[in-house]
């Protein structure tokens, strides 16, 4: 009996000290939390290439050449893509430059030509609907700064621009996706700060054509048709005289017979 108890006790100690028992006594490992995925980076805004837009959108080659030669294009590109304000650009067609006879741009210095190009830009994005508000606040500063301002007028939904020398209008929207807006204008914007205040007067409107009264018959036609009062009066007077003379002759003849 004692041997049986000793054997049972020894067997129990052996089982408790075995690796399997120790493994069972160990606590279960705690699962590590799943890491939260980091948000995806916001997509970079699209780069607006003004050179590409002006080359494809319309016949703006003359204006684009001026922007490139004066390095103004780099300034406008930076404003369009690297600022929160955006850009509004007014672009004249090639025909607007060819129609410009006086004053001429050929006599401008490099700095004046640069200011002229900057005068066509506003350092802020404006949609067409926002120009109506600009018409009520007076002169608007352009990218050229200083006295280089433009006046806007909304005439039945059409935007008119006045620069002193130039009075033109926005004829179409070339590109308008914030932060860049490009609008076509009919004339080159000429600032007073360069060309002075001796602005040529606006040409007077052409007079309305007068409706001429019905032309009277020419003397030749009158003579031909015999409808002139003077011409018709003479035959009437001569025939009356003949009748009077005939009456007198008959009267005298009757008197002679009576006698």
UniProtKB/TrEMBL annotation:
Keyword annotations of the record: Cell membrane, Glycoprotein, GPI-anchor, Lipoprotein, Membrane, Signal
Subcellular localization, as worded in the UniProt entry: Cell membrane
Pfam families to which the protein is assigned, alphabetical: Fasciclin
Annotated TM spans: none
Residue ranges, compositional bias (Pro residues): 32-44
InterPro entries: FAS1_dom_sf (IPR036378), FAS1_domain (IPR000782), FLA_A (IPR045003)
Keyword Membrane: yes
GO cellular component: plasma membrane; side of membrane
Domain of life: Eukaryota
Gene Ontology biological-process annotations: plant-type secondary cell wall biogenesis
Disordered: annotated segments: 24-45, 206-236
Alphabetized SMART domains for the sequence: FAS1 (SM00554)
Biased amino acid composition, Low complexity: 211-220
Topology of this chain in the membrane: Lipid-anchor; GPI-anchor
Domain FAS1: 47-189
Extent of the signal sequence: 1-23
Family, per entry: Belongs to the fasciclin-like AGP family.
Role, per record: May be a cell surface adhesion protein.
The name this protein goes by in its record: FAS1 domain-containing protein
Species for this entry: Chenopodium quinoa
